[in-house]
Amino acid sequence: MIFVNSKFGALLKLNKQNIRNFSIIAHIDHGKSTLSDRLIQLAGIISDRDMKDQILDSMDIERERGITIKSQTVSLPYIAKDGTEYLLNLIDTPGHVDFSYEVSRALASCEGALILVDASQGVEAQTLANLYLAMEHDLEIIPVINKIDLPSAEIDWVKDQIEEDLGLDIEDVLQVSAKAGTGVDKIFQSIVDRIPAPDVNETGSFRALIFDSHYDAFRGTIVHFRIFEGSVKPGDKIQFMSSNAQYKVEEVGLFQIQRNPQKELVAGQVGYFIAGIKNISDVSIGDTVTMKDKRCKKAMSGFREPTPVVFSSMYPVASDDYEELTEALEKLKLNDASLIYEKDSSVALGFGYRCGFLGLLHLEVVQERLEREYNISLILTSPSVQYEITRTDGEVKIIDNPVEYPDPAEISKIREPFIDASIIVPDKYMGNVMQVCHEFRGVSKNYQYLTSNRMEMKFELPLAEVVYEFYDRLKSVTQGYGSFDYDIAGYQETDLVKLDFLINGERVDALSQLIHRDKSVARARVACKKLREEIPRQQFKIPIQGAIGGKIISRETISAYRKDVTAKCYGGDISRKRKLLEKQKKGKKRMKMVGSVEIPQSAFLSILKND
Length: 611
Known about the structure:
- This protein has 13 helices and 33 strands.
- It has about 600 residues and is of the alpha+beta class.
- The protein folds into 5 domains: about 190 residues, P-loop containing nucleotide triphosphate hydrolases (Rossmann fold); about 80 residues, Elongation Factor Tu (Ef-tu), domain 3 (Beta Barrel), CATH 2.40.30; about 70 residues, Alpha-Beta Plaits, CATH 3.30.70.870; about 110 residues, Alpha-Beta Plaits, CATH 3.30.70.240; about 110 residues, 2-Layer Sandwich (Alpha-Beta Plaits), CATH 3.30.70.
- A hairpin with a 4-residue loop joins strand 26 and strand 27.
C-alpha cells in the first residue's frame, strides 16, 4: 500500500493496481502540450492562478518555438466513477523527428499511450513513426482526435485514416478539443479502463530504470526513474549498475509540476530521487539502479542508443570560457542523453568540442540552451555528416570533420549517407515537392494516394543536403502542410570535395566544408558574399577566397579604409600627387603583411544560414 498527496492535500491510499503509466504521442503541432495542460487542470494539482499555457514546457525556447523538446513527467490523482482513487503518471513527449529518441525513452517507462491526431491534418509521418515505437514496446494504444472545434475539421476522414493507416479500431476513438476542453474528461476514465496496471514485483530486489535526469545547483543531480521491482525510501543505500557508484538516498517523490516528496516509492511508480550526486558522470540515462546490499541479478534492457547524424564543432568565443563550456556540456548531457561530444581543437579558434546531433533542429536547440542557460557565447563550424572514404591502399575511414579529409591523390572513392524520405502532402503540392527534392539531389522512388487528396511521396536523398535547409524549404513550398520523416538507408558513392576559405591569404579551417562538387561553386560564392558583409573593414584590402585544393573558385574583396593623402595638393604638378599615392600604397602593402584579420562570431554563423 502506498500514499500520495491528492489534489485536496489529503493522502490517497493506493496499491499498484491503481497506478497507470501513459504517454501522449503525436506529430509535431497536433496539440500534445495543450492536451497535457487540460489534463493537469482537470486533476487539480495546480491552482487556476498558477496555471499557464504549455505548463510542462519549462524552457523558454520551447515556449518561443511552440514545440516540446524534453519529455516531462507529472503524476495526476484521479477518482473514477465508482469512487476508486487512481494515480496516473503522464510522460509528455516531443513530436519533431529530431527528438524521437526522447519518445523512445518515455515509452520504455509506460504501459499505454494516447496517440493524438489533428482533425484537420490527419495522420502524418511522425504519427506513424511514433505508433511503431509504441508497438515495439507492446503498449496499449488509445486513439484521440484533437481540434474537433476547428472549422476545417474532417472527423470522418480522420477516422478512416486511423483505421486504414494506423490499423486501430475506430469504435474506441475519443473526440476532443484540448483548447476548448471538450471531451477531455473522458480521457481519464478511458486510461483507467483500457491501459493495464504495471506488471511488477513489489517484494523483489529493488530495480529501476533511469529515463532522464537534470542538475540542481543546490541538490546535485536529480534522477528521474521508473521502478520495476521492489521499493525505495530515504536512507536506502543505492548503486548504479554501470558505474558501480554508491549513494545514500536523501529524498524520493513524485513530479506534480513541483517536486512532491514521498515517504516511499514502490514498483510501478514513476518519480525522482535525490542522493547528493555531485559527480555528474556517475549518472547515465538508461542505467539500472539497485540496492547496494541486495543487488538485482540483471540490469534493465533500457532503450535504443541515439544515432547522431549531424556533426559540428563548438568553440567558446572567449578561450577563457573553455572550462565553463566543459562543465555546461556535462550538465546538459544529463538532461539530453542524445548529445554526443569529444574534445577538438582548431588553429583559428583554439580548444572546443566536436559534437554529434540528431538533426539540425537539435543542433540549434543545444546551441541556444548553452548560450541561455549557461551564458556561454559559442562559435559553431558548418554542420557535416559522416562520409566513408576508401584510400588507394584499401584502408576505409569514416570522417565527419573537414580537417580529417585526406589528400585527394590518396582517395580511391568516397561514399556518403543517403536517407529514405517519406513526405506526406496534399496532392496539389506534388509538383513543388518534386522540384525541391530534385534541387537537393533527390531521386523519386514512388508515390501513393493515402486518401482522395492526400499522398505519400518517397524519395532517396543525400543526408548532407537535408542537413542544410531542406525542412524549411519543404514547409515553405507546402504552406506548412508537408510532413517529413526519414530512415538512414546506407551509403552510396559520391563526388565530394573539400571547400576551403582563405581570408587575407590564410586558410581558416573552422570555415571549411565537405560538399558535392556540383554545388561547390554556388555555395562558395554565397559564403564569400556573406563573409564580406560580416568581416569589418581594415586599413588594407582583404581578399576572401573560396578554394578547392589550389584552385580558387570564388572571390570577394573587402575594400580598405582610405585617407585622402592628396587633399593638401592644390593643383600643381600631377607627379606630386602620384608620389603621395605611391607612398600610401607601399604603407598599405606593408600593413597587409603584418596585419591580422579578426573574424567575428556573426561571420561563422552567417555561413550556417542559407538564404
